[in-house]
Amino acid sequence: MTATVDTQTAATGTFARLRTAFVAMMTAAARRRAARELRRLDDRMLRDLGIDRGDIDAVVYGLDSRRAQKSAPVAAAPASSANDNADAVQTPRAA
User: Quick one: where's region Disordered (predicted)?
Assistant: First the structure.
C-alpha cells in the first residue's frame, strides 16, 4: 500500500511542477504580447495611458516602482472589443 501512496504522491508532485511550468510559460507569452502591443502604439497613445516608451518593459514586467503601489503588473493588453479577443490566451488560475 505504501508503494501506491508513493506513486500517487510522485504523480501529484510531477503534475504540480508541470502545471507551474505551463502557467509560467503562458504568463510570459501574455507579457511578451502586451509589450509588443504597447510598442505598436504611438507616443500620444502611450502618454494617454501614462506610459513613456522607455518604460514599457518596466510596466509590463512589474518593474516600474512608480506604479508598484497602484496596481499589479500588466498581464496582457486590453482587448478593444469582444470580437478582437478571439486569439487571446487565457491564463489558468491557481487552484
Answer: 67-95
